[in-house]
Description:
Layout: H1 3-30, E1 60-64, H2 97-108, H3 110-113, E2 134-138, E3 142-147, E4 153-157, E5 173-179, E6 182-188, E7 208-217, E8 220-228, E9 237-245, H4 260-271
Parallel strand pairs: 4-5
Antiparallel strand pairs: 1-2, 1-9, 2-3, 3-4, 5-6, 6-7, 7-8, 8-9
Amino acid sequence: MNKPVARTLFATAVAALIAGLTMTSAQAQRGAGPGRGAAAPASGTYNGPRTPDKKPDLNGIWQALGTAHWNLEAHSAIEGVPAGFSVVEGGTIPYQPSALTKRNENFQNRLSADPLRKCYLPGVPRAMYLPFPFEITQTPKHIGMAFEFAHGTRTIFLDGTPHMEDLDFWMGDARGRWEGDTLIVDTVSLGDQTWFDQAGNFHSAALKVTERFTPMDANHINYEATIEDSTVFTRPWKISMIIYRRLEKNLELLDYECAEHVYQKLFTEKTRKP
């Protein structure tokens, strides 16, 4: 092989390698692409099963996949935590400066300060993306949700009754309505004792969560939650993810008993200085 031909082949190979690296980098930024998982089902007109009152049938056992439970924002892998992309619209949570300082303190103390380490209920929206399944039971006037973690439950009232006042519920006071094939749920009275994730992202008692459950087909729900809390954040912000129907044969929720003394032994004593 003469030198001009060899140089040409080498230049072509280098160009192909650079193009491949560029494509891989762009795919990484998007979080998807060829060879990195199937594309999400297209949203649009819902053609799945319906209940007798003509609403999308959400009955069944569901579960979110991903890393939102550990950190809503993009994060690298650390011990016990897989790396993950942000599920926050715009990438980062819009904290007020003093609240951001508090979040960073929470992160440093997360192994003992996370409310889930104390076996508290996860609150909303965190309950929706814990790495545990949950079951939806749907009626025309109510939607019930039963969570495998610590026997948590939610009741979403669809009968038009107003929110109750002066309450403080771990899982909040939820009122829902259908807008076409999308279930919209407003939840208030959530208190200030829960976190959004294991990374210390938090809220105050002024929190209001507006969720949108949009079925994409029989087995996928596009889940969005808008967070409003003017005490902690500079503006409302939104998270979004896909919730998947569990399809295993004879599937049912199992018991996950949260034992606080076990968490204390594993985490509190581990971080205690000698």
